[in-house]
Amino acid sequence: MDLNWLRDFECLARTSSFTRAANERNITQSAFSRRIKALENWVGLPLINRATYPVQLTEAGQQFLPIAQASISQLSEARQSIRDADRGDSRFVRISALHTISVNYLAPRIEILQQLLPDLRTRVVSDSLSTCCELLIEGAVDIMLCYYHHAVSPMIDETAFERKDLVVDRLIPVAATGPAQTGGWNLSNRNGPPIPYLAYERSSFLGMVVENTVDRKPTNTSTIYVDGLVEAIKRRLLSGSGFAWMPETAIAPELAEGAVVPVGNSEWNAELTISAFRNPKMDDETARELWCQL
User: Fold this and answer.
1) CA-to-CA distance for 92 and 227, rounded, in angstroms?
2) What secondary structure letter does DSSP report for 105?
């Protein structure tokens, strides 16, 4: 059981629309549908009548809805109670962040910030965009870090939450130097054998960015591997398996060392912004100091 399944189900019951619910939950409709199906498999009965428009709950769904709502409420209250007990001189500033931002931007940045704020203690939750957004909206974290892109941006009410843009990152198509040079890999070249492509899961944030920008151009590529994690794709990339679009922050050392090279010019790049969100009404002094220093 995944708590996100219950939240998805509650959202679908409220909106009566897979499209609207998926948008509200910040995931693709196909991924949202899979999670609803997974919940139905767990329950053992259909919860949604898909033959009607708008969609309606089945009898089992109507019985299960109050249970799901109560479970979400009780777990949220329990989490808040545990958080409150953690307050004090040693309180941790809680941050949610996408996996790759946590590894390649936030971790080294916190190393620097702890020199400026010696009493700083942080607890980082690295997860998907939808989970990071939920944690912020529900007050389970003080600050959220995510990518912001004009085509695929988190659905955060910016009248309720403050946003700070931290740094511009780029998605760059790169490959290990040896295979790229030996194979003459170039995305602008339509001739020759297809270039092996290491792709992001389309339901992931970077997968949606690639799909909505550079991936729409015709290429001579062949997808050989799909994963939702940048670090997993990076490992395959460095072994010479193929090319991938990588955030520049995640591949900067390898680019500088010449271990990887771009396989396309700047027209194949996509710009991203690493942004931070917080509730401006946060009352924790350490969290406010960290926000100012980010």
Assistant:
1) 32
2) I
Q: Which long-range contacts (CB under 8 A, 24 or more apart) does 8-11 make?
A: 8/32, 8/35, 8/36, 8/39, 9/36, 9/39, 9/47, 9/61, 9/64, 9/65, 9/68, 10/65, 10/68, 10/69, 10/72
Q: What is the model's pTM? A: 0.70
For 227-284, what is each residue's pLDDT tens digit?
988 999 999 999 999 999 999 999 999 999 999 999 999 999 989 899 999 988 776 7
> Look-up: residue for tokens 């020759």?
192
**Dmax of the chain from CA atoms?**
64
Using one digit for the tens of pLDDT, what is the confidence trace for 125-179?
988 887 888 888 878 889 999 988 877 766 677 778 899 999 999 999 999 999 9
* Side-chain half-sphere exposure of 36, counting CA atoms within 13 A: 29
93 and 284 Cβ atoms separated by less than 8 Å: yes
